[in-house]
UniProtKB/TrEMBL annotation, chain A:
It is a multi-pass membrane protein. The keyword Transport applies. It comes from Limimaricola pyoseonensis. Residues 78-293 form the ABC transmembrane type-1 domain. This is Carbohydrate ABC transporter membrane protein 1, CUT1 family. GO terms for biological process: transmembrane transport.
TrEMBL record, chain B:
The keyword Ribosomal protein does not apply. It is found in: Cell membrane. It is a multi-pass membrane protein. Its main location: membrane. The lineage of its organism: Bacteria, Pseudomonadati, Pseudomonadota, Alphaproteobacteria, Rhodobacterales. This is Carbohydrate ABC transporter membrane protein 2, CUT1 family. Gene3D superfamilies: MetI-like. It holds the Pfam family BPD_transp_1. Residues 101-293 form the ABC transmembrane type-1 domain. SUPFAM superfamilies: MetI-like.
């Protein structure tokens, strides 16, 4: 429904006027075309080359991908992402839903409580990482405090333990994001038709049944949005790991994002780094593209 | 329903219609004090790290290493704050975080301004001057926000070098501008989509041109969405670490990178109190924005996740 179509008349000035909107749009579209899609193509191409410290263009086919899947640190990173991603999404959704339902009971001072639940989202992951890094540090943090209070046998050294360190990333990430998920669910709860709930209650539905059968199913769009946002944040997680554990102890908390960075820029294996970035992109695209597609299609 | 007007006003901005009250839900069955106890417990959980940072930034190091992390300061001191600000060892130099705080300001202000202007113009074209493929163009712009930025690090490093912007604050401004276009376009597009197109048509019949319509008709009513967009971009760009770590030199690092260096690089005695003071400094600008305009902050978060 272009306005310019209805107003079309011949003449150079008119043609310029008709083209003006597209001219205004085109610089940013061109920038995105180059800096997003051109760069994606470039990195994609690099993943098939023998690039080491600098980009080079000797074609090696699937070699980088074959090598990538033979590197144990990559296996660790992928396994960590699976553990971290699943727990992060599940706990954030469970906690967010619970807090949203609790906050939806006509709570006095709801606004203040919500503000407190949500403020971590305004912080940098580096700040969150620093706070939790020292709080979880057995030498000065929780463990030392508990022992100081007289619980001599108390022990909490997950952050120094290769098997448990990944869970400290989950702890800090859940702290940062769960309030935001709460806000999404709360908005969903506020959008539910109250007439339907009233009718169900008149029919004698218990509160538990009411939530399980009517309220939670209606929150499906909120669940979808929360899942997409959390999954894409999990895959992109980089700052938090760097600040909290630096990927350690050893490589115990490496994620694909940290793997890509260290292989590309410190280990000078740019081809393998590019291959790992491509896999990250594919994973995110598999989640985001269907979501954007459905969101944009129903509008137009 | 005493708090209803304020609380629902906040979420109304997300598109959820305000719900009329009068129901009891779980309320009749679950003792209220249990409810409040649980909610308070979670308040403590969310506030705990902030308390740890604040109280430990105001006490001497010896009190922390003696196992007193959870205690209030025995001896109050602002020395960690002044050390973090102006004399702590960040990387190789003992400059404190001040120069990096300035870098972040110099990076954030132009990047936010540029991406917001671009988003407003894009949103205007994509809603009021629609053309074939407009939705596709929008979808492609939007997808650019979600890509893992690892995908662009290698070519961007080269490109900044070619442009003569490598390792500089203007280089970071450019990077944040480029990758901020998608979200700012999203905000303005969704906002302008609800703006009556008839007004634009009428103005056009009266002879107003493209820019005059934007300037006189759309822009004056764009205040709310501009605030949302600015807050979102400010928070994102201020908090960015990946681009800062990849594309800055020692003297152009933003605050997040410098804070990380401060915390990771201190060899010998780890000055936890200085680290905490630095962390609060890095958090203050975005916390301030959240405190002043939390309502818009929430709206921005939600718009980023819900509905196109």
């Amino acid at each position: 429904m272009s306005i310019s179509e209805t107003a079309r008349r011949p003449g150079a000035a008119d043609r310029l006027r008709d083209a003006l909107p597209k001219l205004v749009l085109s610089p940013t579209v061109a920038i995105v075309a180059v800096f997003v899609y051109g760069f994606i193509a470039f990195t994609f191409y690099l993943s098939f080359t023998d690039s080491r410290i600098l980009p080079s263009f000797g074609w090696v086919g699937w070699q980088n991908y074959e090598n990538l899947f033979r590197i144990r640190a990559w296996d660790t990173a992928v396994a960590n992402l699976a553990i971290f991603g699943l727990l992060y999404i599940a706990i954030c959704c469970a906690l967010g839903l619970m807090l949203a339902i609790l906050l939806d009971q006509k709570i006095r001072a709801e606004g203040a409580i919500r503000t407190i639940y949500l403020y971590p989202m305004a912080l940098s992951f580096i700040v969150t990482g620093v706070a939790w890094k020292w709080f979880l540090d057995p030498g000065i943090g929780l463990e030392a405090v508990m022992r100081g209070w007289g619980w001599e046998s108390f022990s909490f050294g997950w952050i120094k333990d290769s098997d448990m360190a990944i869970y400290t990333i989950v702890i800090a990430a859940v702290w940062q994001t769960s309030g935001f998920v709460m806000a999404m669910f709360l908005a969903g709860l506020r959008g539910i038709d109250s007439e339907m709930l009233r009718a169900a209650r008149i029919d004698g539905a218990t509160n538990f049944a009411l939530y399980r059968r009517i309220v939670i199913p209606q929150l499906r769009p909120a669940f979808m949005s929360a899942f997409v946002v959390l999954a894409h944040m999990a895959i992109k997680s980089y700052d938090l790991v760097i600040a909290l554990t630096g990927g350690g102890p050893g490589t115990a908390t490496e994620l694909p994002a940290t793997f890509m960075y260290s292989y590309t820029f410190t280990r000078n294996q740019m081809g393998i780094g590019a291959a790992s970035a491509v896999i990250m992109l594919m994973t995110i695209a598999a989640i985001i593209v269907p979501y954007l597609w459905s969101e944009l299609r129903e509008k137009s | 329903m005493a708090t209803a007007p304020t609380s629902e006003a906040i979420l109304a901005g997300t598109g959820a219609p305000a719900r009329s009250g009068g129901r009891s839900r779980l309320a009749a069955h679950l003792p209220r004090f249990v409810l409040y106890a649980v909610l308070t417990l979670f308040c403590l959980y969310y506030l705990l790290p902030l308390y740890v940072m604040l109280s430990n930034s105001l006490k001497p190091l010896s009190e922390i290493t003696a196992g007193g992390m959870m205690a209030l300061p025995g001896e109050w001191t602002t020395a960690p704050w002044s050390a973090a600000w102006s004399s702590a060892q960040v990387g190789v130099e003992a400059t404190g975080l001040r120069p990096y705080f300035v870098n972040s300001i110099l990076m954030v202000v132009p990047a936010v301004a540029l991406s917001t202007i671009a988003g407003a113009l894009n949103g205007y074209v994509l809603t009021k001057w629609r053309f074939r493929g407009a939705t596709l163009v929008f979808g492609l712009l939007l997808f650019g926000c979600f890509i893992p930025f690892q995908m662009v690090l290698i070519p961007m490093a080269r490109m900044l070098g070619l442009m003569g912007l490598a390792g500089s604050v203007p280089g970071l401004v450019f990077v944040h501008f480029v990758y901020g276009i998608g979200f700012s376009t999203l905000y303005f597009r969704n906002y302008y989509a609800a703006f009556p197109t008839e007004l634009v048509r009428a103005a056009q019949i009266d002879g107003a041109g493209f820019f005059r319509i934007f300037w006189r008709i759309l822009l004056p009513s764009s205040g709310p969405i501009a605030v949302v967009c600015i807050i979102w971009q400010f928070t994102n760009i201020w908090n960015d670490f990946l681009f800062g770590a990849s594309f800055s030199d020692f003297d152009s690092q933003p605050m997040t990178v410098a804070l990380n260096n401060l915390v990771q690089s201190s060899t010998g005695v780890k000055e936890y109190n200085v680290h905490f003071a630095g962390a609060i400094m890095a958090a203050l600008p975005t916390l301030f924005v959240y405190a002043v305009a939390g309502r818009f902050f929430v709206r921005g978060l939600m718009a980023g996740s819900v509905k196109g």
